[in-house]
Amino acid sequence: MKHPLRVVVAKPGLDGHDRGAKIIARAFRDAGMEVIYTGIFQTAEMITRTVLEEDADVLGLSILSGAHLHFADEICRALREQAAKEVLIVMGGILPPPDIPKLKAFGVAEVFGPGTPTSKIVDYVRNWHAAR
Amino acid sequence: MSKPSEPTSIGTASPDPETWKSTTLAASLERLPKRKEAFTTLSGLPIDDLYTAADVNPGASAKEIGLPGEYPYTRGVHPTMYRARPWTIRQVAGFGTAEDTNGRYKYLLAHGETGLSTDFDLPTLLGYDSDHPMGMPEIGKIGVAVDTIDDVRLLMADIPLDQVSTSYTINASAFALIGMYEVVCKEQGVAAGKITGTCQNDILKEYTAQNEYIYPPADAVRLVVDTMEYAAATMPRYNPVSVSGYHIRDAGATAVQELAFTLAAGHCYVTEAVKRGLTADSVAPRISFFWNIQNDFFEEICKLRASRRLWARMMRDWVGAKDPRSWMMRAHSQTSGVSLTAQQPDNNIARTAIQALAAILGGTQSLHTNSKDEAFQIPSEGAIKIAVRTQQILALENRVTDIVDPLGGSYYVENLTTRLEEEAEALIRQILDRGGMVCSIEDGFIQRHIADSSAAYQRDLEAQKEFIVGMNIHIDPEDPLPFEPFELDPGLAERQIKRTQGIRRSRAQAETTSALKEIENAAMGSDNVMPAVVRAIRAQATVGEMCDVLREVFGTYRGPIVY
Lengths: 132, 563
Known about the structure:
The complex is a heterodimer of chains A (132) and B (563). With 132 residues, chain A is α/β, with parallel strands linked by helices.
């Protein structure tokens, strides 16, 4: 049997809007995953370090501040360079549609916009895990 | 003409509601049962089969409801309400540099907006200059970047500050922006007694909802009281605090929690001022409020009515304020941002219009209507124009402005107003009994309430007990993007940093340093920091430098993580 998935939910930058991050952290926890929620005011380095130290399988980023391209680029790049294993990076928040292809090019596997049911996000992560 | 005969009850049943339930209602339910087992408001308060005169303020009299412009202000703070003057159309705006936002202000005023409101960018809100590494990725993204007095001069350029009132949405670093606003008003020649405007400056809800805080809560409250004391003495018509339920609600709270946590915060600021030796009547009249208008139409109307009555009682009976202006709650309202959908965004126009109508029927003094594209971006000009036009339609076409408190006396509205007031009062008393707002923030009590309500609503949404059209029902397979994209100038960060660094190089540094030292001395003791802050502003100190001085004195704070 596979180990329970370890998920880091993180709030990069100075954005304080954490309703979505808390909802998704709770949904992952209720789905039996091990959740580490970083809280607010996290730099890209802090988030990368948390993912590595916690040996996380999944990183969920929540950004509503418009700084998503900056942080996704930095964090995806750092994890690609430093993580020993593949980390699934998913993202949610206020994300203009024209930016979504750019986020995916950086290495964000999927973007879940406002109104996405948490069950859809949990299923996405589970399916990714099952396929590995 | 003969007098019409006395009305008789229609049908055969008695007008007694209990008999109605057992006869007329029971027979109807046998044929057609209710479409759901329990009816509740969006906040979970039960809704009965019927409301009658017997349900209006159980155990209370007409005195409790009162009349418009009189204690306890249930029916509105003004005797005339919108018959004398409509609400202020006040759209919050802010992005890019001061010049960019100034341009948007002029666009809004040209389209009939009657008051201004500013959103600041995250570095400004959190007291980092634009060239600080924490600030750089976020310059100008969700608000305007302000580092020095020069930015506020540009922000307010060509705006007649003696005629247009301006609101600043800023909290942790509010002391700096209040000082900058005062200086710029004076430079424009506005006499101190004529300066109007509002600063949000409600730090307590930052720790529970919006999360843009810097210092430990008790020190931050001291700064708020410093600004209240300073404004009362120097700008008597300025509102230094706008106690905000908006963010609490959008973070997931119920209407009752929004009422309770907001009024408890207002109470905290007034009682802290009293502890300092000020009278309640010297500060309470200049405290305003800011409410979130969600989707439950009647609950939101009742919430505004209940908020006024409860605040009036709290100020008169709990705090002992004597001046009626201290009892009178004046409020700004904004339609709910969190209720906007990314799916079928045109639907947000209808959603916002209905919420706006609730705010008006509830008696708001000013109103922001959200734009349809805000689930994606800073609103485009086209989208914000529809939002302004929505308010103008309500103000000019529907005649809802011609009646004062048109729902006063409605069995349901009066009943729900009382229930919201009672539930909120019980929660406020619980907070006071456990030591007040600061300790209820530090131990996560309030955050726990909000997180649980947010999770419960999400559960109901996913179980389709609650519906959002276009999101979990009546879903379109593909959403086209029917709006214009909003794009920031990619060169704005560079422009902003250049301006700020140029000022740091050219200013009389000795004067700046000495003013900053003066802020430090005041903060370490019990002197009001504001006179030193204003001196530092005139000496071109930056927001970041002033906030750093206070970081050294107060330290920084990280709240408990509650989810």
